[in-house]
Task: structure prediction
Amino acid sequence: MSERPDAPDRDTLLAMFEIQSRIKLCDERFRSLLTSGQIQLIYYSPRGQECISAGWGVHLRPDDYVVTIYRGLHDHLAKGVPLRELWAEFLGRATGTCKGKGGPMHITHPASGLMVTTGIVGSGIPIANGFGIASQLDGTDQVTVVNFGDGASNIGAFHEGLNMAAVWKLPVVFVCQNNLYGEHTPMAMSTGVEFISERAAAYGMPGVTVNGNDPVATWTVMGEAIARARAGEGPTLVEARTYRFYGHLMGDAMEYMDKDERKAAMEADPVVLYREWLLANGHASEGDLAEIEEVITAAIDDAVEFAMNSPFPDAAELYTDVYAEAQQ
Amino acid sequence: MSERPDAPDRDTLLAMFEIQSRIKLCDERFRSLLTSGQIQLIYYSPRGQECISAGWGVHLRPDDYVVTIYRGLHDHLAKGVPLRELWAEFLGRATGTCKGKGGPMHITHPASGLMVTTGIVGSGIPIANGFGIASQLDGTDQVTVVNFGDGASNIGAFHEGLNMAAVWKLPVVFVCQNNLYGEHTPMAMSTGVEFISERAAAYGMPGVTVNGNDPVATWTVMGEAIARARAGEGPTLVEARTYRFYGHLMGDAMEYMDKDERKAAMEADPVVLYREWLLANGHASEGDLAEIEEVITAAIDDAVEFAMNSPFPDAAELYTDVYAEAQQ
Amino acid sequence: MTDTIETSQAVEHPVMPFAGAINQALDIAMELDPKVYLLGEDIAEPSGGVYKVTKGLSTKYGTHRVRKTAISEAAIIGAAVGSAIAGYRPVAEIMMMDFMAVCLDQVTNHAGKIRYMSGGQTPVPMVIRTSAGAGRGFGAQHSELLEAWMIHTPGIKVAMPSTPADAKGLLLTAIFDDDPVLFIEQMMMYWDVKRYGGPVPPGDYRIPFGVADVKREGTDVTLVSYGRQVHDCLATATKLAEEGISCEVVDLRTLVPCDEEAVFRSVHKTKRAVIVHEAVQKCGFGAELSSRIHEELFSELAAPVQRVGGANTPVPYANNLESDFLPQVHDIEAAIRKTL
Amino acid sequence: MTDTIETSQAVEHPVMPFAGAINQALDIAMELDPKVYLLGEDIAEPSGGVYKVTKGLSTKYGTHRVRKTAISEAAIIGAAVGSAIAGYRPVAEIMMMDFMAVCLDQVTNHAGKIRYMSGGQTPVPMVIRTSAGAGRGFGAQHSELLEAWMIHTPGIKVAMPSTPADAKGLLLTAIFDDDPVLFIEQMMMYWDVKRYGGPVPPGDYRIPFGVADVKREGTDVTLVSYGRQVHDCLATATKLAEEGISCEVVDLRTLVPCDEEAVFRSVHKTKRAVIVHEAVQKCGFGAELSSRIHEELFSELAAPVQRVGGANTPVPYANNLESDFLPQVHDIEAAIRKTL
Ligand SMILES: Cc1ncc(C[n+]2csc(CCOP(=O)(O)OP(=O)(O)O)c2C)c(N)n1
Ligand SMILES: Cc1ncc(C[n+]2csc(CCOP(=O)(O)OP(=O)(O)O)c2C)c(N)n1
Ligand SMILES: [Mg+2]
Ligand SMILES: [Mg+2]
Result:
């Protein structure tokens, strides 16, 4: 709980807190509405992984690109996808980011740089390279951050994507959010290495493992990787170690997870600890933080109401957006 | 040209020479018949890579499994695929290993343990694991050797296959025949590492690079990897460095290859150098080696005649072997 | 109803969920033959698969025979191919059918072609079990039916059962068949005993491939279907029976081989046919079947064969759109009326 | 012949090989728009692609715009998808169509669905060029035509030209189209000027998608085809003309969108149709088209629509078997006679 010489300035610290809290509070609202049966959807909770997205979130510019996965709520929020459209999309409404046609697994919001959310494990990685190629050809210093899990590091797309990025020195940061499980399988049962970051060497790429529950350390590592990419020095593989508090998806019995391990992880809730640390070290007063939380809560209230009161998509929408023109 | 303390016994040395010569002479015959227009087929010459297959060939038992690729003639011969059926298959005859239905890219001869030849880069690797699983479940000490190129190390199947083998400690030896090119692309332009063997660490697997043109060193490294697999200690990635004398396939203009590099490689023809070394160090007399070569030449004469005089497959064969039963 | 089904009901076999029948078939196959083993993501205990279809099996047979893998579909199918050639009968699970796209090379270029390319020397007796289908709000990448890809790929057999009994009987046949079989399980049916449960004969119960099952007899129009949509056809038949329209429902059960004779027999009687499947209609299996019926029975048909399939769109997320994407009773009804 | 072709022949454009026309289209597109770039295996100089189709382009436009990749098809298509969303118009090359199976996830689940899943926000304007086809002794894994997979996947357009002029005109349209386009080039046609060469209009010549071309007019039977098999249809038509049988040859040119109206128009006139394609007949595009013709023109047809496609087998290696696998003039002739 002591002060950190490596910590960023107060604004950044509070910006990270804001993102983390937004994720945490949004997640809590989703889970409570799901539990009470007020909404129904397939829900992959990102609870426990907030620090990671906040860690890259505060470094990115609006014109930087982010690619993520089905467990992507934290990444969506960290990149600034607006709450109303996000909630409406989760509930399949016409006012959602994707008019209700994509759903939670496919949130897309180019205006905030959230470019692709994919449901196919690992497949976002090669796509992220495409954004990197575009920035490289455009001669801009935009950066692409692509998020994926530990499990994704075992699929072919990971390998092909990292190799291509390394050979072409693409401005892409590969963020492996290692929550120690891929669905019901502990990482050690499926993966030949102990640290995913060790795999970077197979592509001549720098690889680093960071405690993804330590906001300051994560912020530092993400900052370095993003700066490298922005400077045209090529990609980095960042492995951020963390934990999924609520298993793979809502309703998961979690019988395959170690009870004590989970209990310990939840007791070391990184958002709660970070809040305490901010207070303990005088970066913010209880009032400051409570206000941030209140603003978020109000915004969530508003977003939920907006989404709930939004119409379902018009039946004709089934057939639009398949091709540029009307049906072929 | 001096004696090698690490060399195997004379029988093994001569067995390796026999395999190398068989490959070299077979290849020369193919190329001469192709050049003279007496036969026509897509031909991927393995010339230059003989030592590698000979290196594992002498260690394997008939009941060990081998998987290889379109550039596979050297591997087929090292595993003992008989010349007549091999030639007949290359010429698409009913008497071929596969009744003329597979062709050179798909030589299969279970009787000698040559299980799969694939034309899809990298795809033999996961299949090899299947043989390893079978041996593991059977409780035998059979070993599977799977061969592929440097280019194949960039495709997803390589990654997934090596990870699975490492996690399950499968009795598989992954032999990357690194001839420095994948089709028209030099390895350095496509691959993030300098040595393919460095990739083994990404799976917690031992990886070793050997000069694949040095028969003794290759024999040693293959022996260690095969022994490890046979002892149930798991897989190894062996990178054997070599060179393709005749480019990607017959007719290749090779304008993308460095002329001097190729000239130097051909001047250091590993089969020729090995022959000289055997003589210089008294492992065999000129007569011994000439006799081996003569026997092979006679066998090739016989195989070519057999193949040329064999009938094309019966028209009805188009429809057989699609399913276990007659057409569905 | 066919004899098989009647017989099984006559002795009142216990009603099981669809998933339970599959679990039972796997259990029996593993018991019968030590060469049968399973591999796939999350299939071992304690969870027994994300849909619990393989529950209990790793405890009973050990994790060497119920092998939990990394998320590496190409490695899974490749391993199945190699071990099948080596004499095993692997049953690989691809968690959802859309993921076939990441490993299709192993399925089509290898499992499907190796027997042929080897001149018959190396058969590939393996099963790929995969769950599939829309209706669960999973969106465009977790809802597809892609049997048409595999039907267009010679060398692969395809089964797609509609009832727990058929699932068990066909899966046991699939496992002991000497060719690669794609076995498609529509997820909506797994645990919904009320709508999709049914009696399942005990023991080593097998249903031969290539034998369609007339799930309802009728005289006015033939509904040809497979998988979950057979239930929609039956519902439509019940509805139209009130108006005096008599529908025969032919459940193909396996698509490769396909019991075309049974279809022709029925259409010969009714002179009218409607083909119903969940997959996108365009270039789906319905197209092949419709062509075959026209080719063989052109002069007998009272009306052109009609097709009812998924919309020509990716599967949308929003509930209302997803329903509209799927073929529904009212769509089948409309198609039938076109033939009358 | 259509106006387009007649016009182009009237002014006597230089005869080019099929591959040359594609090279020209790529060159023009890259010249016109800096957002067009190419990626694929071996496509850069000095070799300019294993079939020399991209010869000269990396020298002219630089290796940042003609990007030679590793053997990583999923990475190639994924990179194309991402950069297309970011505003580029990538043209990715998959060396042979059979290799689509290793990257199909990026093609179908991503390129094909992203526009839809994003509610129209992120179009994916990219082209996948791929060479395909049997007849070259390449065996089962290097000879397939798989257009049916993609036609069954909503969201992807499919073009398959039969002449150099069409290849050029359709490829330029494909590159500037706002959807992913699969562009299929039958390798047999690349450099065989004698059989497949033809005049090619200069400059920025474009042919709209969804407009079939009547390559020969006739009155007795309609042959519907695309790609190289159009030439077999024309040869058959010439042969049967000697007997006084008049065949109309409709070249679809694009399969998604498909100019069904043109087909219906022709069949309305001839009352008979034969569909010819190289892909395996079972569940091929011919099945869809045959169903569509029956559905729309049932009462007008004098005979059921016939299909001529590849055998229901993997592509065999032996020369004689490979010929038998392919649809040939005598197969087309036999199918035509069935309709007469
Ligand atoms: C190619 C593919 N295979 C399987 C799945 C099913 N699946 C969805 S999430 C998941 C686990 C992924 O684990 P990880 O990458 O660690 O991410 P996490 O869910 O832990 O965030 C699996 C197997 C899928 N979506 N895509
Ligand atoms: C998946 C796939 N992509 C592309 C090809 C085309 N291709 C055939 S061989 C080859 C080069 C392979 O290089 P390498 O692995 O080094 O083997 P080598 O030919 O040098 O022995 C390529 C790209 C293929 N057969 N399969
Ligand atoms: Mg995980
Ligand atoms: Mg090579």
Observations:
- Residues B 149-151, 179, 181-182 surround magnesium ion (ligand 4) (CB under 6 Å).
- Residues 129 and 183 of chain C are 5 Å apart (CA to CA).
- The domain at 15-199 of chain C is CATH 3.40.50.970 (Rossmann fold).
- Confidence is low (pLDDT under 50) at residues 1-9 of chain C.
